Amino acid sequence: MNKSELISAIADKSGLSKVDAKKALDATLDTISGEVKAGGKVVLVGFGTFSVSERSARKGINPRTKKSINIPAKKTAKFKAGSELSNL
Predict the structure, then answer these.
(1) For position 59, what pLDDT does the model report?
(2) Residue 43, strand partner residues
(3) Whole-model pTM?
(4) What residues contact residue 72 under an 8 Å CB cut-off, 6+ apart?
(5) Which residues have CB under 8 Å from 56's CB, separation 6+?
(6) CA–CA separation, 55 vs 58, rounded Å?
(7) Which helix (H) or strand (E) holds 27?
(8) Is residue 88 predicted with pLDDT exceeding 90?
(9) Phi-psi label, residue 44: left if phi above 0, alpha if psi -120 to 50, beta otherwise
């Protein structure tokens, strides 16, 4: 399912117009991404949790040259499925 199909499904199930469903979806996604970018966590009980995970620096190997390289530490977004998604 792509974004436009999701917007259509939201509109059908909620009785909203597609324009209003798009606004609601965009606002939801903006709020979630803003909170995660700020280092916070968003918990949707039964659905899942969006959070930030820190990956430590590590050594790696360049597959082309086989030389050792340093991979810097970074932060990544993480999603952990809740009970309703885990029991499919």
Answers:
(1) 95
(2) 49
(3) 0.76
(4) 57
(5) 73
(6) 9
(7) helix 18-37
(8) no
(9) beta
